[in-house]
Amino acid sequence: MILLTGATGFVGSAVLRKLLERGHSVRALVRPSSDSSNLEGLSVDIAEGDLQAPETLKPALQGCTGLFHVAADYRLWAPDPRPMFQANVDGTRILLATAGDCGVERIVYTSSVAVLGILPGDGLADEETPVTFGDMIGPYKQSKFLAEQEVRKLVEDRGLPVVIVNPSTPIGPRDIKPTPTGRMIVEAASGRMPAYVDTGLNVAHVDDVAEGHLLAFEKGVIGERYVLGGQNMTLREILAAIADITGGKAPRMKIPHDLILPFAWLAEGWARMTGGREPFATVDGLKMAKKKMFFSHAKACRDLGYDPRPAKHALSDAVTWFREHGYIS
């Protein structure tokens, strides 16, 4: 039996499907309040629990030989960042320590390229690019950086059998929330992005990222980390690809980052006052966008056999899924 956290979410549900395809028996740790639509029709054992309720973790781990810890609080803006640190840092430490106590034999921890260093210009960063906590912009990146440090401590101090994976920007079907990147795709496919900023992302199909998780489980070296990436694209290229998929028009106007910053401050202030959802443009998001987040997944290809498809497949599958499920009019 394998315990999977985050199974109701975007990446986690893709990992769940890959595990079932491989013939694994899976137990999913699911919060009672979670939207479980990504689990419909799948043969999975449900264990109600929460990373912030430690008493629920040991029962969920009983009898499990493997653990995939995919769950995370992924937001680029939060009115109160404390729950993000509690879930991403404290929850990760407690879950993995409990897994060690329960004798789990193999663990894959889902980190993020957000914790890696970034090279200037169009340079490709990787697992060894130098980085410090001071380079982390915003609570999400900070919490994931600290969480990975906690994981490394458990490997070094207790010998926990953990392999770390660092997905780049997963895109594809079943992004029910949707994620910040998914929201961007919905806005672009709906014709509501008339301009762009000069930035770049590494785009990977969510199902390839999920496959990379299983390859790490099967072939990864304990204590090592592997970038699970795809194709490096500028935002202009991404929006042009979406326009080509939808038959729309790609934006031609480039806006300087600093010109949008005041609007992001206003949007965040309004969201705080009204208790609304995360603003489409956030201050931390714009600060991060000043650098192109380009990465190399050569290590995962060489050591794990990871082989991602071109980014346009991911974008096309995402647009199709969003359209079929009413996100795009």
Tell me the distance between the termini: 41 Å
CATH architecture title: 3-Layer(aba) Sandwich
Which secondary-structure class do the elements indicate? alpha/beta
Classify the beta-strand content into a percent band: 5-15%
State the total count of DSSP E strands. Answer: 12
Secondary-structure element series: EHEEHEHEHEEHEEHEEHEHHHH
Describe this structure in words.
With 329 residues, the chain is of the alpha/beta class. The protein has one domain (2-237, 289-324): NAD(P)-binding Rossmann-like Domain (Rossmann fold), CATH 3.40.50. It contains eleven helices and twelve strands. A seven-stranded parallel beta sheet has the order 3-2-1-4-5-6-10, sandwiched between helices. It has a three-stranded mixed beta sheet with strand order 7-9-11. A two-stranded parallel sheet has the order 8-12. Strand 1, helix 1 (10-21) and strand 2 form a beta-alpha-beta unit. Helix 1 (10-21) packs across helix 6, helix 5 crosses helix 11 (311-324) and helix 7 (235-246) crosses helix 11 (311-324). The protein starts with a strand and ends in a 5-residue tail after the last helix. The mean pLDDT is 92.
